[in-house]
Each structure stands twice: as structure tokens, then as C-alpha cells.
Amino acid sequence: VRSPIDAANIIxxxxxxxxxxxFVVLGxxxxxxxxxxxxxxxxxINSSIVxxxxxxxxxxxxNCASCIVAHNHPSNDVSxxxxxxxxxxxxxxxxxxxxxxxxxxxxxxxxQSLSLKEKGFL
Length: 122
Hints:
With about 120 residues, the protein is an alpha+beta fold. It has helices at about 5-15, 50-60, 80-100, and strands at about 20-30, 35-40, 65-70, 100-110, 115. About 30% of the residues lie in helices and about 30% in strands. A five-stranded mixed beta sheet has the order 2-1-3-4-5, sandwiched between helices. The model has no long low-confidence stretch (mean pLDDT about 90).
């Protein structure tokens, strides 16, 4: 995985065209090779409650060095909500404590994606 687009393509293929928000974690090795890809929460049509422990558990069990988290917006609007930004901050904090770097948080729609890192939120 060398870019947000690489990660978005992997994750989009994994979650497909879901009508519900799915929050996914892509765990990476020290060489940014995928180690685990897991849905950690499935929400409603417009929200998903994500707990850092659920995200970090998958990463710890797979012995990951870093991760990219992502979720889809079934509305096809990739604009981040205040909740998207807040959960990103919480995950970065949790990752810092545990020693697993959160590299990015992607918001996916059918044909587009948004990187919170590229937009300055990470």
C-alpha cells in the first residue's frame, strides 16, 4: 500500500456497495503490506459507532505495525462529519498509546474517496 488510492481500492473491493456504513481497518506490516482487513462495525444508513478497542484488537492480534481505517458513506457524499473527525482523533490517540500508527482515515463512496490525512485532519 503506497497511497490512499491503493488502500481505497482494496477496501472498496472488500466492502462492496453496502447500503449501511461499514467501518473497516486495514492492518499493515512494517513494509506497508496488508496483514488484516476486517469490518469492525456495521452501522445504519448514516452512522456508525466505532470503539478504539475494536479497531486495535484486530491490529494487535495480527501483529500490525500501522493501519488505515476507512468507512463508506452510502449517501455517496464523502464530506467528513464532525463524528468522523472525532473518531479519527480517538483512534490516533489509542494507536499512539499502543504503538500502532494510524496512517489515514478514508471515507469511501461508489466512485470517489477522501483522505482525512490529505485534508489535514490527521
